Amino acid sequence: MKTYKGNFNGSGARVGIVVSQFNWEVTNKLLEGSLTALQECRLNPDDISIYWVPGAFEIPAITRRLVQSNKFDLIVCLGAVIRGETSHYDYVCNEVSRGISQLCLTADIPIIFGVLTTNNAQQAFDRAGGIHGNKGYDVTRAGIEMVTLVKQL
Questions:
Q1: Cβ atoms within 10 A of the Cβ of 75, count?
Q2: Where are the domains of the chain?
Q3: Which of 18, 113, 136, 152 has the smallest C-beta neighbourhood within 10 Å, fewest atoms?
Q4: Are 19 and 51 within 8 A, CB to CB?
Q5: Distance between CA atoms of 73 and 71, rounded to whole angstroms?
Q6: CB-based contacts of 115: which residues, under 8 Å, 6+ apart?
């Protein structure tokens, strides 16, 4: 029996990070966590590219272009959708999730979902460096683990 498992040595990997500008106070914290994880995983800063998009809804479109560029081994998607008083939240959450999910199934590289979908701002801050850790950090480490696993296939 053969067993395959990724690791956290991402040296040499090229990473694109797509970050939503909307809810910047949260997404910037997610980005900080992501960059910390990449540093810990031995990535060269020159191998990291950050793409700021207006909102979470725009993340899949830029991610698709990054996949098509063949420049990256991993794409990390970071955003924060916080419930408001209208149904807009539901539409944005559904579409960004669906868009990224479709790309995950067709791309030859890992695409990592780091879009927070919370009921209020406090829940978002709790997950962007607060009492629940930093999900930007967590998903990026998972991404590096996936990159190293894919290289074994």
A1: 28
A2: 101-153
A3: 152
A4: yes
A5: 7
A6: 20, 56, 59, 77, 78, 79, 80, 81, 96, 97, 100
Paired tokens of 96:
């960004």
- Extract the tokens encoding 6: 């990724």
Token duo for residue 28: 């910037």
Pairing relationship of beta strands 128-130 and 133-134 according to DSSP bridges: antiparallel
CA dist., res. 27 & res. 125, Å (int): 9
For residue 121, the number of C-alpha atoms closer than 13 Å in the C-beta half-sphere is 5
Q: What is the pLDDT of residues 49-103, one digit of tens each?
A: 999 999 999 999 999 999 999 999 999 999 999 998 888 899 999 999 999 999 9
Residue 138 to residue 119: CA distance in whole angstroms: 21
Catalytic pick among 88, 98, 132, 151: 88
CA atoms within 13 A on the CB side of 49: 14
88 as an active site residue: the answer is yes
Residue the block writes with tokens 């559904």: 94
